[in-house]
Amino acid sequence: MKGNVLVGQSGGPTAVINSSLAGVFKTAMERGFSKVYGMRNGIQGFLDEQYVDLSDYIKNELDLELLKRTPSAFLGTCRYKLPEIHEDKAIYERIFELLDKLDIEVFIYIGGNDSMDTIRKLFDYSLLTGAKQKFVGCPKTIDNDLAITDHTPGFGSAAKYIATSTKEIICDAMGFSYKKKNVNIVEIMGRNAGWLTGSAALSRSEDCEGPDLIYLPEVPFSIEHFVDEVKKLLEQKDVVVAVVSEGIRTSEGKYVCEYATENATTDAFGHIQMSGTAAYLANVVKNELGCKTRAVELSTLQRAAAHLASRVDVDEAFSVGGATVKAADEGSSGVMVVIDRVSSDPYQSTTGVYDVHRIANDEKVVPRKWINKAGNYVTEEFLDYVRPLIQGYYQPMMVEGLPRHLSMNLKNYDWITSSK
């Protein structure tokens, strides 16, 4: 008889991270594993023996469908950096003691770059000790910056939300344009990779001219040049919409958001907590050009908008979750599941596995050739890459006018009858 599966979620959530969790659970049950335990708040919670039996919450297909439509991390997440093995061997002994206690055969971590680093370290320790467990990474990040894989689950839905919101922001700005000059600056997530920011260009269509300017972190940013660009545009039109990545930085390497605050905080991995880029630039433009400005920061909405999730994204996230179980069950360990694009038109993809050592702590950025020469927009090649990933719609289950989600506090179906 097979042992148990342990799955955790780590890092920033996405609109489809729970679809991967649903794929893990369903495939593990179909392949004959005894139980699927979920770590509460990732590896950090697991160290405190915080875990649940997922069968207490997923009892049938309706629960699975609700889970696939639930935003944020159902199990809770964390940003916890495991030390290197030689730095603190005791913490690894503790983790593997708990794995043995729960008869864990497969360890799956759903996350991005830092999460794959956790898989790398646990796998390496298992080789040193001859531990029986298999360790497999399940990709997740709206930033789309994981190496090797064509794209990451979560990116397509975030791109869809960003493009939709950009269209709506442009419509709103145009409504206030009569005899008024106004500049709208939209801030998009993305520390070092501009995949999300570039996706705003998808809003350009027959009914929308799209943003005027798009700035990605892959190209050094000049505040002075930005103001000049906006000034030239205002001489030709009344409304200017610029989209900027939160991670844009000057040629000296300083993040623009650092100009907005003197005491930027960092997370456990040393990453600066970014915010305020659009607000800072809006103030600069207002002071320099004397026009009306507005800063729009989409913030967590980019990763939480499950009501606007891409069907392609939901389906791939579910498939990738299942593929992690399949890979481990067939003997793979120390790997991450990747998505391989078979065709863009019509769009088709498949899954594979790749050595996690080649992925952890690496970062995939937008190729320079997919950014225009001026560094203020993306090319058609970029749009051709992203467009298939935002297709389709995953209808929420609506109750009294609002989407219904799976919750650890909701274990029955009273809401079905009470809502009628």
Mean pLDDT metric: 93
Query: Roughly how much helix do the residues carry, as a percent range?
Result: 25-40%
- Give the number of helices: 14
| β-strand amount | 15-25%
Strand order of the largest sheet: 3-2-1-4-5-10-11
| Biggest beta-sheet profile | 7 strands, mixed
Oligomer: single chain
Would you give the CATH topology of the largest domain? Rossmann fold
- CATH arch. level architecture of the largest domain: 3-Layer(aba) Sandwich
Number of domains: 2
- Give the overall silhouette: globular
CATH class of the largest domain: Alpha Beta
Task: Count all strands and give the number.
Answer: 13
Structural class, from secondary structure content?
Answer: alpha/beta
Rg computed from alpha carbons, rounded to a whole number of angstroms = 22 Å
Characterize the structure shown.
With 420 residues, the protein is of the alpha/beta class. The chain is built from 14 helices and 13 strands. A hairpin with a 2-residue loop joins strand 12 and strand 13. The chain is globular and about 75 Å long. The two termini are 44 Å apart. The C terminus is likely disordered.
